[in-house]
Amino acid sequence: MPRKTDIDLLTYPKNPRRLSDNAMDELSSVGMLHPILDAVAQDPELRLDIRDGYFNVYYGGGSLLRLQKSRQGWMARFDEKYFRKMPHQVNLPSATIASETDTRCWVKVFPALIKVMDGFWAAKPNVERRHCQEIAQANSGRFGTPPGDYLILDIEYQWAHRRFDLIAVRKNPRMADPEGWSVPKLVFVEVKSKPAACKGSAGLYVHAQDYASIVGAGGGCRLNEIRGEYESVIRQKENLELIDRRLGFERFSVATPEFLLIFVDLNPDADSQIAKEMEKVRAFAQQLPSVSIHKMFLTKTDLVMTKNNRKTL
DNA sequence: GGGGCGAGTATGGCGGTACT
DNA sequence: AGTACCGCCATACTCGCCCC
Prior knowledge:
Layout: H1 21-27, H2 34-42, E1 46-50, E2 54-59, E3 62-70, E4 73-77, E5 96-97, H3 100-123, H4 127-138, E6 150-159, E7 162-170, E8 185-192, H5 204-216, H6 221-239, E9 258-264, H7 272-287, E10 292-298, E11 310-312
Parallel strand pairs: 8-9, 9-10
Antiparallel strand pairs: 1-2, 2-3, 3-4, 4-5, 6-7, 7-8, 10-11
Helix pairs in contact: 2-3, 5-7
The chain binds a DNA duplex (20 and 20 nucleotides) through strand 3, helix 4, strand 6 and strand 7.
């Protein structure tokens, strides 16, 4: 498989994150997968995210359940690796889902599977992934207007082997739309909780380069595809009531998407290594006036993303 | 026999830790 | 501090099966 540096960004074939009409029907109130959506709706710690022809339910930054259509029908999968530290205490329901009853069997074991995942992470913490999902939860558009200026659309977005922790929109108030959610700006987000993750092959500078390469790919036409991909994700999530339709999303702003570095309980200025890395990012941003790079400081106890805690680089 | 599909598996990216 | 390795994620690839 090619490394990201070998990929032709002009021709890279991106399969958009989108569910089939059949999947949307099965998740609807009359479909056999609907109990999953119900469970997600009732538990703010769970989120459902749309992938390319399948979807995941995430808990604590890990995949609680993955649902994919196969020839036999819908297949549910729990990552058995989580049992490694905590040998099988849960009898998994049948992988094949053929009825609403089958789906209910899976939903019934969610609490037990969550205990297994918690047990796994007690031995092996996943601080940053957990922060990502907590940020997504704190800046959700599921239960009405988001508390801050951002709404998280998705987690772990990958494009041409480049990966970002979160995809968000930032509200864009105008005269005709004082609330600002109808034509928001697309945002690529990278979350950092530890100094060591700020440098090196997945550090701040490399992520800034990845962002710039995507935004500029094909003279901006690849970016238009990504906007289209997320317009579709928003529409599907509105239909699944995972994004509140009353926010009135219409389309994305044509403005260049923002790249946002979020530091959780981390002060980059207090760490000379991070400060050095930030300086590289700043220099990179200055030579590319079209890009828009910002940083934001959050704490574990206040993960609401606002303009006030954001600073231009 | 070849095209399409899909289950299983490999690979790469990234975070995290443990060891030097 | 550097690095080597592991775990988890998304996704790309492989190869066998089914159907024409």
